[in-house]
Specification:
By secondary structure, this protein is an alpha+beta fold. The chain contains eleven helices and 38 strands. The chain has a four-stranded antiparallel sheet.
Length: 709
């Protein structure tokens, strides 16, 4: 596999592949040299400056932009004004990136790049922000309605501590997210102290106890052709060590996303690495199935398992579609307009370590630019269904039905989209099934990344206003009404916000037993500096933006997101993989430590016997007593959303529970339904399918980053 990946990297053409900015710089230098004193010089110098910025050299970009401005007189008169505006906007973002490099990276601290800015995050090296302020003031002098420039001007002042008073009154703003809609304690970024702060561009994250020592570990990826997979094993004291080399991950580079599960039912969680996203034909790169050998090492078994194909993708999901106790795999591939067809794949697990593609036989015929696939049993028939997020297209809800056709896979998918009314939004990206209102039915969330439709300025304007804009497509929250129908409750649940969602996931930030979510924000453009957003579920009555309260408004582009209790204290922490598309847009990983609260919780690890060992697809209902009466909390076992892989360990907030009355489990595949008397509150337990009692797991609370609690 390492040799295949090297070959794919060597075949990528810098002329065509815009991701290869480092390799494109000398190409554009030659183009400039051939066009000195011609009408093309200014435009080519601007393009060279963009490549310099994207390759990680904003200072050189700034110098080149000066030469581009000097060459404007030779540009065609009809294009001169537009080109001048482009040069100036690139100049502003280059100054901003220089400020990030000289402060957020070179002087990195736990508060860096988090809005609103704390004093620790203010830029000591000020030339970047001062340069940006001068540029955006000039842009706004010409067009005061330019919302993107207005936001970036306020942001640059924020980095210097001169916001808001230093901003001219006409351009001053206070985005609504700076005022939390509900008070929650602040989550601190402890990635540096914990030892998982490696800096990369966009990538994925998976959290699981990969070595089965009782502590959750972290695996990360990065999209770059030469970016290695990294495995961080927990030391048991709140810190992690890089065990990538001993895990034999050398040479297994690239990957925008990771999804994990125990595909071979041997008790050790395996990992599927997804590659080639956004790169069109240069993204025809194989994915990797990494078998966890159980001895601290992983083996790439992609070819032996029959999974070796060459398609651009970043999304996949594990689920047992035929109910035989072995996890199958669905992979959503990207077919670009005018490009080759890259049909999505559905791999049936034969149970012997190999897979067979049954997409056609199972009626899974999806050829589109797929950005999310998630499995969930929306009709409660015990069979996992599929939702497919198709960018620039309507989305698909596919119902899983039994199919006794001899020689077939035993199931097939039927299009249920029209009846369910869940085809929007068209510019969709991350998505997931979850039961946000605790009624026992799987609801559906579909986020958007519409930054270029109609444009960044409109999206930023809606973000600053804090309400929906008819020109900007909003996320959709669909409430499951039963009988195969959903209702769009986006507005009444207050999720109709302008967010350029990428990596995103859900969990319970405050252990109240209502599922919250965290949305990674961004776009390839270096100007796409919008805070990632945290939303609290207000007991099913609506979602509250708590970004400012929890301190999770990170400005770097959010990719893989995973929720997990990394310090074993009963609440969920959040790992965020940040960094952009281009090689110069890198940033360290983020680990937000949950400070805890007075709410109660329970941690459950389910182990299938007839069901798949990971228990993916199991349905849980926890009945608890409170001073206000009885309530039930509903969850489904999975790794969360379509971009980020949370632990399969179920970390369940119970709110103000005084006792656990009972726990109900419906196991996938086998269909076994179990009801057990509730164990004590705030404990950690294992439940094996068919067992008559929970097994107590000793808790080992630690302080993330080391030290004492």
């Amino acid at each position: 596999m390492a040799a295949l990946l090297r070959d794919c990297a060597q075949r990528a053409d810098p002329e065509r592949c815009r991701f290869l900015s480092v390799e494109r710089v000398p190409l554009y230098r030659k183009k400039v040299e051939r066009n000195l004193a011609t009408p093309r010089e200014a435009d080519l110098r601007h393009k060279l400056a963009v490549e310099l910025l994207q390759s990680g050299d904003p200072l050189a970009a700034i110098e080149e932009l000066g030469r581009a401005a000097d060459a404007l007189e030779s540009a065609p008169p009809g294009k001169r004004a537009d080109l001048s505006a482009e040069i100036e906007r690139t100049l502003g973002t280059s100054w901003l990136r220089l400020g990030e490099q000289e402060n957020c990276l070179a002087r990195h601290c736990c508060a860096s790049c988090i809005a609103p800015f704390a004093e620790d995050a203010l830029h000591a090296e000020q030339r970047g922000s001062l340069g940006a302020i001068a540029v955006f003031e000039r842009i706004l002098a010409r067009d005061p309605r330019d919302d993107e420039a207005r936001w970036l001007l306020n942001l640059a002042h924020s980095t210097l501590g001169t916001w808001p008073d230093g901003v001219p009154e006409a351009h001053r703003l206070r985005p609504p997210i700076y005022d939390a809609e509900h008070p929650l304690p602040r989550f601190a970024d402890v990635a540096v102290a914990a030892g998982i702060d490696n800096a990369t561009i966009s990538g994925g994250v998976a959290i699981e106890d990969f070595d089965r020592d009782g502590d959750l570990d972290v695996m990360t990826s990065s999209i770059g052709f030469a970016d290695p997979l990294r495995l961080f094993l927990a030391n048991g004291d709140g810190t992690f060590r890089d065990a990538s080399k001993e895990a034999q991950l050398d040479g297994l580079c690239g990957g925008l996303n990771l999804v994990h599960a125990d595909y071979d039912n041997d008790g050790f969680d395996d990992v599927f690495v997804l590659r080639g996203a956004w790169l069109q034909e240069d993204g025809c790169i194989p994915n990797s199935l990494l078998k966890n050998r159980g001895d601290g090492t992983f083996e790439d078994v992609t070819e032996a398992a029959g999974l070796l194909t060459f398609h651009p993708t970043q999304t996949a999901a594990w689920s047992d579609f035929d109910g035989d106790g072995w996890l199958d795999l669905v992979v959503g591939n990207e077919t670009s307009p005018g490009g080759l067809n890259h049909s999505s794949e559905l791999w049936r697990n034969r149970g012997d370590g190999t897979f067979v593609d049954v997409a056609s036989a199972a009626g899974f015929s999806v050829t589109a630019f797929v950005k999310g696939v998630v499995a969930g049993d929306f009709d409660d028939d015990g069979r996992p269904d599929l939702f497919v997020s198709r960018r620039a297209n309507t989305n698909l809800l596919l119902r899983n039905v039994a199919d006794p056709t001899p020689g077939g896979p035993g199931f097939r998918f039927v299009d249920a989209t029209q009846k369910a009314r869940v085809e929007m939004p068209k510019m969709s990206f991350p998505c997931w099934f979850f039961d946000y209102d605790n009624d026992g039915r799987q609801d559906l969330f579909v986020a958007t990344n519409a930054g270029f439709t109609p444009g960044m300025s409109e999206t930023v304007g809606s973000f600053m206003a804090g309400h929906a804009d008819a020109r900007v497509e909003m996320p959709r929250l669909y409430r499951n009404e039963g009988e195969g129908r959903f209702k769009d409750v986006s507005r009444e649940q207050r999720v109709d916000r302008a967010i350029l969602s990428m990596g995103s996931n859900f969990g319970d930030l405050d252990n109240d037993g209502w599922l919250d979510f965290y949305l990674g924000n961004g776009a390839p453009d270096f100007a796409a500096l919008l805070p990632n957003r945290a939303f609290r579920n207000d007991a099913g009555k609506g979602f509250q933006d708590v970004t400012a309260a929890v301190g999770m408004g990170h400005l770097q582009k959010g990719h893989g997101v995973a929720f997990a209790d990394l310090d074993d204290d009963g609440d969920q922490d959040v790992v965020l993989a940040v960094g952009g598309f281009f090689p110069g847009d890198l940033y360290p990983k983020v680990l937000f430590e949950n400070p805890g609260n007075a709410n109660r919780s329970i941690t459950l690890r389910l182990q299938g016997v007839k069901a798949n060992r990971s228990a993916i697809g199991a349905r849980l209902r926890v009945d608890v007593a409170t001073l206000d009466g009885e309530r039930s909390i509903h969850l489904a076992v999975n790794t969360g959303g379509s971009f980020g892989s949370s632990s399969l360990q179920q970390e369940i907030g119970l709110g103000a529970a005084t006792a656990i009355r009972a726990i109900h489990v419906r196991w996938p595949g086998s269909g076994l339904e179990q009801t057990l008397a509730g164990p004590p509150l705030d404990g950690s337990y294992r439940l094996v399918e068919g067992a008559t009692a929970f097994e107590t797991v000793t808790r080992k609370p630690v302080k993330l980053g080391g030290g004492t609690r």
